[in-house]
Amino acid sequence: MDAKETLKQHIAKTISLSDEQFDYCFSHFKRQEFKKGQVIIAAGDQVASEYFVIGGCLKTFYINDDLKMYILQFAMPTWWASDYHALYSGHRATVSLDCITDAEVLCLKAEDREKLCREIHAVEYFFRWRTNMGYVASQKRLLSLMNNDAKHRYEELLKQYPQLYNLVPKNLIAAYLGVSRETLSRLYHARDVR
Fold first, then answer.
1. Cα–Cα distance measured from residue 184 to residue 194, given in angstroms and rounded to the nearest whole number
2. What is 3-134's CATH topology?
3. Which of 2, 40, 100, 117 lies 20 to 30 A from 34 at CA?
């Protein structure tokens, strides 16, 4: 499926647009390709865009003063990614976004998103709904980190996103779960024994 059709189907799950409206919306997106390991947003950058993933896998991450990496999000096809605090506030990025694999994305500038939201009410609804769902997912993840042990978080991730284990190196999954690579290896092998 091509980029245009992927975005069209994604949007159609939430709102209904005429072909003309969708074509107009799509004209504001720019297709980009990135290589594995390529940085899309680095901490300290000005952030003007968000990215809709067509193919590949991205990660949003933060590196603290002790150089420990914390992964906030993996973004697979039909997911969106950016440093949203920087995008919405105009502050510089505090998190980075890069490519775990070669990736194809559609880039939407914040000013174009706002223009589309002003011009087409259904598009405004789509972005509001998507933002709300993102907030819900973040809240669920935070509660899981606070309330569940590593084994439970691992099982939860495996159940929710089984394809991650074929796409993402184990050290990155460990960083996402907030455990060491060794702990993840023990959980992985314990699961295989069952």
1. 16
2. Jelly Rolls (2.60.120)
3. 117
Interatomic CA distance for residues 168 and 160, integer angstroms = 15
Q: Strands across the sheet with 58-63, in order?
A: 39-41, 96-99, 58-63, 69-75
Question: Per DSSP, what are the bridge partners of residue 69?
Answer: 63
Euclidean distance between CA atoms 33 and 105, whole angstroms: 6
Q: Where are the domains of the chain?
A: 3-134, 148-194
- Calculate ∠ Cα 50-52-55, nearest 5°: 140
pTM greater than 0.85: yes
Sequence-distant (6+) residues with CB within 8 A of 174 are: 180, 181, 183, 184
pLDDT, tens digit (0-9, with 9 covering 90-100), for 132-155: 998 898 888 888 888 888 888 888
